[in-house]
Amino acid sequence: MQKLKCYLCAQRVSPYLVKNGYTLFQCQTCGLIQTDLKKEYQKFVKEYYDKGYFTGDPKYCAYDEYERDKVYILANLKKMFGRLANYLGQGTLLDVGCAMGHLVKYANTRGWDAYGFDPSAYALSRVPQEYKYKVKNGTIDTVSYKPGMFDAVTMLDVIEHLKDPVGNLKKVRTFLKDDGYLVIATGDIRSAAAKLFAKHWTFFNPPQHLFFFSKKTLSEVLRISGFKPIEWFTLGKWLSLGYTLHLGRSVAESRLAGKLYNVIMKFKLGKLPLFIPMNDNMVVIAKKVKS
């Protein structure tokens, strides 16, 4: 049996922790954390990101009620989009993993020509009718766009879901104009929250998350893929009380969170807002390096 090696530098990895029946491995050289899906990726994606993923099905450690939480999801997207707007006033945008199209709709109302794609047919069925022609069902591996079509590509909480981040970013790079921008948001394994919560950190969530990055390893992924980081920042997030407790009971495996979740849902308090200043979600704006 062939031993698993580091995806990024091909060096030795050792077990880091076990979660949801999956072993996470950390590279002893570069620090990248990864897991082995051991499933055919396209089939897995098609089956995994169904209605239950967005509606609190207990078999997933995913969303509680995605549609209910639209206002908070959009608030977080707007903050990241606003930083991109510092570099580009308007232009063409591709949102990778667009889900129900919240960012696609918002960007279009702000004067952008925005498009998106997502592997979830269920999520795309909830995209507003007037924007359905701007979204596709598929993954980075299966979709196609004209070379150099976009001024910017956003991948917000996406890269950790990919089986081949470098290969996928190289393909995304072809979608961008020569001076195009890429925005990535993902968890930071070097953050205080990751260290504090350890196994119960919300980003340690296989099999939906397959890779776990630090600024160092994500920088290397970008370099290999043909991008140069130009700005790094972290953001707290707006979440609903229901989703926060759902994460606690599912990802963090907290019995107390589970009991509180049942109480607040009984009294219909799930939509109450919470600002979580964890700053464990790092965001990088990178520029395409010309060939």
TrEMBL record:
InterPro entries listed in its UniProt record: SAM-dependent_MTases_sf
Gene3D superfamilies linked: Vaccinia Virus protein VP39
Pfam families: Methyltransf_23 (PF13489)
SUPFAM superfamilies reported in the protein's UniProt record: S-adenosyl-L-methionine-dependent methyltransferases
Full protein name: Methyltransferase type 12
